[in-house]
Design a protein that fits this description.
The chain is mainly alpha-helical. About 45% of the residues lie in helices and about 10% in strands. A three-stranded parallel sheet has the order 1-2-3, with helices on one face. A hairpin with a 2-residue loop joins β11 and β12. The chain is elongated. The protein binds one RNA strand through α6, β7, α8, β12 and α12.
Amino acid sequence: MTNQELANRLFPEVTTTPAEMEARYPERHLPEGAKVTRIAPSPTGFMHLGNLYGAMVDERLAHQSGGIFYLRIEDTDRKRLVEDGVETILSVFKRFGLNFDEGATLEGDKGDYGPYTQSERGFIYKTYVKDMLAKGMAYPCFCTEEELAENHRLQEENKENFGYYGKYAIWRDRPAEDVEAALEAGKPWVIRFRSQGSIEHKIRFEDLCKGTMEITENDQDVVILKSDGLPTYHFAHVIDDHLMHTTHVVRGEEWLGTLPIHIQLFDALGFKRPKYVHTAQLMKLDGTSKRKLSKRKDPEFALDYYFSEGIPIDAAVEYVMTLLNSNFEEWRRANQTAPLDEFKFNTKKMSGSGALFDLDKLSDVCKNVVARMSAEQVYDLTTAWAEDYDTQLYGLMTRDAAYTKAILSIGRGGKKPRKDFGVWNEVKTYMGFFFDELFAPDYTQMPSHVDGETVAAVLKAYMDVYRNSEASDANSWYEEVKALCPQFGFTADMKAYKAEPGKYKGSVGDIAMILRVAVCGRAQAPDLFSCMELMGKERVLERLQAAVR
RNA sequence: GGCCCCGUGGUCAAGCGGCUAAGACGCCGCCCUCUCACGGCGGAAACAGGAGUUCGAUUCUCCUCGGGGUCACCA
């Protein structure tokens, strides 16, 4: 049986040729220097930070160069498929503002290089496989799981490298009769690539993120087509990225180990190799050692987490960008309000080592991002979040939108905006006391060195002042509060009080605190005058009265 | 174990043969101040170790150590 006969026997249904495929997916006509990138997730229903991290690099690379950014679905592992996997992928990327120029969508493929779902590309992979078989570049392997396990056991015992190579490549040079017999017997088979590599040979390789490195040639006869007729990642990657004319492959550094296989395949098939960007792994501190961010242990790894916690999408994106490009923060400080698109992303500024995911830093970025927003934006984004995750808050915020927006305007804008919260799920706590339904005063936060009787007296005295108050701004309000001091033996001079606290029964600060606890129900709140003004006289008087004991 | 990647403060990081070794987050102190949140000022805190190259190494080379990844009909 010749190679050609074998090829025909294994793939009688395949009549297409590689040349036809090449013709069907011609070179793209793009401007000089345009990059073609892709993100190729598996529809497992779980989207994580790594997906976003890579996708952002792809997106920037393509769109900064006038190229194409596309989505390909890698669903060749049927065991891990999930019902709405593709939908999840699409919706998550959409929410993060990543726009694909072509690829899979819910309405079908968009673009001329499809299908963009690997399970629909069987005929393409098989066309190449059949050709490789005919040329002797690949061969069928009938090994059972047990035989492979036995190989592994022997290799372990002999302290040899694991895998399917050399004398362990059982079917590599099997006589035609054996192949014939196995076929007759109806044994299941896979197709393996006939490696010409040797671990004695090193290859110099240039990675756009990691720099130059030296890697060992692959000597394993890897499986390229599984027994279910679908390609392995290695093969699909090479065929797809070749035919789709991907110029830059961005993926996690966990792929570095299999890079020799990919290079070998590209070369053997006579394809031009894409450039690679192997990104450093996102890490997390576990006890005293670093480890890969894990789906099971780290909620912040899942992109769902950002939605449910109410982390502003823009902030998550900014944070990832700070991880991605070391000069991003500097740029952001200089260009506070510029759209992210204007940042010149550069693979050279990517860190080669794995960054620890820093929740403190994320939180800081969130606060800064939110501080830059208008009250209107904060209102919109918070209600959008609350609609799904906090119906009570949603109800209150939408009941009186103008009131809520006014609350959110306090201290916003200007050179030194307040940064009270950076996450939508903190909004309720921050402004809850403005709503009677959420007002739960804690009078124990009254100044401890002022006795209850005085507290009550202060409240009563202020109520009298407040009923006829003409205060129209924070300063005049403060003057009124200060005027209350003498009758209680307090001082309006904070400096003097701090210097000699013993000299006075209290200070204007204490009076303000008494009022604050009465009106806001707690010791911390934004500017009291603003709060009272928004709440309205009636409500404030009610609360002052309620605090009198 | 083989192969590969990585190694500057607690974290993220500038640096690319000569610097008092930036900056940011976090932490601490002070100032501002009606509290908080801002903002301002200041502080503690680092080149993993050892050889070599060099007049001179954080920077270049080698070794050691440490961390990580990967060795599937998963991606």
